[in-house]
Amino acid sequence: MPNIKLYGLNDHEAEELFNKIQKTFKDELYADEIVVTTIPSTVRNLKEKSQPYIQLELTNSNVDNGIFTKMVPKLVKLKIDIQHTTLTGFISRE
After folding, report:
1. What is the mean pLDDT of residues 58-74?
2. What is the pTM of this model?
3. What are the percentages of helix, strand and coil residues in the chain, rounded to 5?
4. Beta strands in 1-94 (DSSP E)
5. Could you give the CA distance from residue 2 to residue 34 in angstroms, rounded to a whole number?
6. In 3D, which of 86, 73, 82 has the Cα closest to residue 2?
7. d(CA 44, CA 53)
């Protein structure tokens, strides 16, 4: 389950970015697996400049099956910094 986490955005900005993400991935075969999490936060550098970013959280299987290489070029087009992490696993509720 790829998790796209949004950091450093106000509610309006987060909703706009969510809509762009939804539009970007809606036709992908793996779209139903993607979740978007909004983390209410202030992200800024030491000069007080706002530094919002996306954290793309994937499992090893997402990397192995190519979802990572499919998602990143699409996310780059959104013109926001991207941090990516790989989890060692995911346990589904099902």
Report:
1. 85
2. 0.89
3. 35, 30, 35
4. 3-7, 35-39, 53-59, 81-87
5. 5
6. 86
7. 10
